[in-house]
Amino acid sequence: MRTARTAVALIVVAALAGCGAKVGEAKDESEASGHYPVTVSNCGVRTTYDKAPQRVVTNDVGIAEIMFALGLEKHMAGYVAPDYRTSRTADVPWKDGYDKVKWLSKKQINKELVLDAKADLVFAGWNYGFGEGTDFTPASLKKLGIGSYVLTESCRSGAGNERGVMPPLEALYTDLTTLGKIFDVEDRAAELVAAFKKKVADAQAGIPRDGKRPRVFLYDDGRDKPFTSGAFAGPHDIITKAGGDHVMADLKDTWTTVSWETVVERRPDVIVINNYGDVNGERKKDFLLSYPPLKDVPAIKNKRIFVLDYVDLVESPRNPDAIAALARYLKGVRAS
Predict the structure, then answer these.
(1) Which of 34, 23, 298, 314 is CA-nearest to residue 153?
(2) Residue 275 clears pLDDT 80, i.e. is over it
């Protein structure tokens, strides 16, 4: 990205050229290709890159896997994430990426960590690492000479802290396409987007267009009040494109809290559980099945509970597979 150092370098090059020095040999392959500089828009902010970042630090597993899917391991200094690979221990997608890139921490990303990693770019999101409460924001990193890329799912909208500016899958495709431009891997990005769109279309092929759609609620966590997803988080597109009716589609936010009364009123036929953290999917399922206020909800009465992993449900290249898996489950629900 353009920095004070870039400006100084340009002055030095101009001075050398004025003295008759040959400076063409100093260009790297990406500059010689004519791809750079490249200007992109990310969450409404336009940034110009003079070359591809070389020491990217990512926060959270879905974000790391976006980089892995694009084949950008050599551009990464490391990733920060709890062990959210969860139930898929035998066939973790992009396992080579996890093996090649340094796991910097399971804990909260912070300035000291990215400075120690000599990061030139941090790829995170609002509430996915970025937050004013920890003073870890694109603005605070800019003061340290470190660039930022914000996960599109987490783009803030409006005057408050609500997040989401486009449908979830569109956010994934937008990030893949934009990062493809930044890192000069546009062909790879286009191939991924095309493959993901085909996978989603194949999953939808068997869904009746005029039949009843099972009503689906996403349960993330929470006992007093459930934490769930609105229209701009991954589960919305996962549910709707799998043939379900997302009961919280009217919430114009990503992840948010609702009341149990609202869940009961909307009578979901299926509950999808987000499997992560100390309280895993099985324990969350046991809680839901034994929670008295839910006893008359169809999903509980019929024990129709489907578990997906955290990384399936946040913006990540696993979203299309999650759609296919849920579509198969909902097909069985409609047939029963």
Answers:
(1) 314
(2) yes
